[in-house]
Fold these 4 entries.
Entry 1:
Amino acid sequence: MDPAAADAPTDGDGGLPPGRPVGWTGEALRLLDQTLLPGRVVHVDVTDVDTLVDAVRRLVVRGAPALGAVGALGVVVAMRQARREGWDAVRLAAEVHRVRTARPTAVNLAWAVDLVEPLVPQGEAAVLAAAQRIVTEDGAANHAIGRLGADWLLERVARRPLRVLTHCNAGFLATTQWGTALGVVRELHRRGVLEQVYVDETRPLLQGARLTAWELARDGIAHVVQADSAAAGTILGGLVDVAVVGADRVAANGDVANKVGTLGVALACREAGIPFVVAAPESTLDLATAGGEAIEIELRDGDEVLVHAGVRTAPAGTRGHNPAFDVTPARFVTALVTQTRVLEVSAGRLPGDSTNDGTA
């Protein structure tokens, strides 16, 4: 089943290609609004920088590879607004910088803006073509990650069929299509060697329960949703053969920033002696950052952990601590799967080591 096929009501005409949360209509950047899933499938057309930055910060669009596509296409949005409103070059550069820094942890957003911004003097068509190449290449990368990750797992994990745990959402909703961690899951399912997926609900905004489960249901993949606090017990109880997650940034030493709660999953996998696998495109590798201690961790509004469905769940006067990500040290990362290689990070094969360019 097409991963983007939906039985929820659709507002507007949609218009995105199947399986993609980000697209270009010819006039606007079109986003699938992930804040409303799974109840409603609503598309948002973005034609100005304020709306784009707000969409990124509110998690209308999220996931490192998807943010890369949004960053590149966001430069086109800024250029079109500059032409409409008569901005000078200084104002345009400032607005592009706002797009680049809308979320600090996911490296793909800045990476993609930096890739296309030098083309601005060549005009909108040149920038748009480069942005569309990023979208196309990310889709191909996701499929390659799925194949390489499935190959690696099937060579190293004896049990059949496999039971997989994942945290947050690293499916097509977090990319341009197919998914990274869920790309591996989908490939295992395609090969008939997947028994079940344990989906961490992913507090406080429930990306696992709302988004990952939505994707898996539409693919007909067996899954259960569990509280984040159940993950360690599920792993140590012998119910899981491997954990596969995405990444928002990978440092040169192999440290991985991902949705908060990922570190606990990695620690449990280490204790249980099962693989903890990170699936991410090469663009998520930040070789300019030496280690995880240098990764800026986004702190979100504390009310996200104090309020549920509009109802306050904590006593008045209580403050919320809401880091969006945590950092898993390289020694807990069994393997890092990109579209070109598998690096066994905990064994010393690091993304920042130029001698480790082959598949493990």
Entry 2:
Amino acid sequence: MTIMSRVAAFFRSRWLGGVPIDRLFWRDLVVVGTAINVASSVAALILLGLKLPLALVLAVHFAPVPYNIFLTFAVWRTAGKSSGAKASLMTLGATLWLILVVVA
């Protein structure tokens, strides 16, 4: 399996709800997504400290936003296939997480 087919399978499985909601929310969104955002922010701060162009700093800082939006929508879609308080809380949590990582 090539790297591109693995990447495509990763995104497809999450978009189509093939990943359990707990793994999608806690591992993919909260742990990995937050780590990517922290790394991006640290890299942007380093670039800012090196006095590189602001456009580059902002591009690095906001680079994870499309992935963040994808993860949030994937949680919404997966939670929409089930009912109950847990699904509603994860949808709310994903929304609040998206707002937090985009604003911070």
Entry 3:
Amino acid sequence: MFKTLTAITDKTRAALRLASPSAPRASAHQSRNVPALQGDDPGVLSAELLDRIGRPLRTDTPELEECRTLLDRGRDLARQENWDRLSALIGAADAARACTAAGTPEAELLAAGARSDLSRALEEASSAGVLSRNNRMLDGLRAMDEIADEMPGDPGCAAVVALSHMDAGWAWYKQGWRRGKPEQHLAPFREAFVRAEEILAPFDSDSATSPLLASTRCALLAGQPGADAQVVTRYETLVTLAPQVPGHMRAFGLHLLPCWFGSYAALDLAARRMAAATGETWGSGAYAWVYFDALLQDAGALLALDTGYFVEAVEDILRRHPGQHMVNLFAAGLCQVLAAGRDMPRSQRRPLEKLRNRLIRSEMTETHGWVWTLTDIGYATPGSGHDTGPSGAECGARQAGAALSSVMSREARRRPVQPSPAP
């Protein structure tokens, strides 16, 4: 358990933290008004130059706005203690398999918003190293338990409360990890997951029809004995319920890495099985989705990757779901994979480089900085991070600017930035 947890804790906690809608937000503005991209680094394209080469920086996109709205709605209803309304919205979104334009489940976002105040407080206490058995933040968990007791038989409420306990478990573990002594907090970590499992137990049969409950049971795997034997069954159930959700397949691949519950061979087998099972929705695209976060975290996964099949899978995804969100996502992911896999054989590297260059040169017409940031933190389900705040958005924009500067250096040189006219 200890070895398994170490590799992923920071990414998981980062994604949960960024899901909090109480984090500062980037304001809407024209791309030429982003001063962070006007710095001294000559290897990074400025926001103005991104405009000039036809890749304007966008800080507000339809996907981001949808996610913010749902996160805010969940948070506000929880603050108002209007749990009946919140549960009804979660249940309706879950039953309808409602998703944002890029395929993030609305029920997960509402649930993430509902627990965001507590999750953020736990994260801050953990980061400060002050989380303890008598910390007042744990009063929030007890309050959540009271809500669950008042609403027995309510699956949406149970999912939110169970996820809150898992958030607490990760906060405990991260505090020990940051101090270099994670074993000191394994007991409260395990207790948190045991409590989450107890809350979900009455709804085990419902997870066969509810994507939210099935996804929450997948999140439980990190703290459960015997997870190696359950990971494939749970994720296959989840993907069958909601094949249109890429995040579930991304999380599946992550959990099949050797540092979690699988192996590179198991990862490749699952990617092929998912491609066959979801062909009606994605063509061969699931092969790329299952590999996506696994490649970002562990360059060793390249050893099992069928590069030609991966390229075909990405192209299938983009044919079925065209749009700048997906183009930015795969351009960003490929840039990171190529940077991490410098030692991969040329025969494997070349197709990935060609795909990256084609996306940036021919298909990318906007720069979505927040999407580039998300490739750094990975995907945490339920409730992946969508609101990175100003610093995260600037970091993502810098990554994008650096990548475009490399791929489009000739275009950038042909379009020198002219001094702006005096007002």
Entry 4:
Amino acid sequence: MLFVYVILAFVAGISELFTGTFYLAAVALAALFTAITGLILPGTVLHWVFLGYCLVLLPAGMWLRHRLARKAQGLTDFDLGQGVEVIGGPDQNEHYTVHYRGSEWMAVVDDGPAPCPGDRAVIIGKTDNLLHLGVLPQQPSADKESLCPPSSSS
């Protein structure tokens, strides 16, 4: 009878690796604890012992899963507040190309004036792979020529 619970623990443990839930882990632990308890108690009560372990470990697994999910929601996005350099744009969709973390990203300007290539901006949000930028104020420089095309306002 002990081998049944050892096999059940093994199968539930392997299945847990493919599903990612805590429920099968709780069943695997209950089966493993039942097999260990079976070394002391007679085999006729092991079904009740397994049921008792399941009634304790399944709610504990659900509580742990919800607790970990709640903690994960509080994680902040470490990209927010990081500086990027505008390297091109805007295109027909008002998207800019920026250099961030060693690669090029698509971005939109949510706050500030339209940037020119070479301007600096700060990430204020992110939607999938699209960065939302806040453009930093332009610092006038006497020795640098502006990369922005001259405005055609009269």
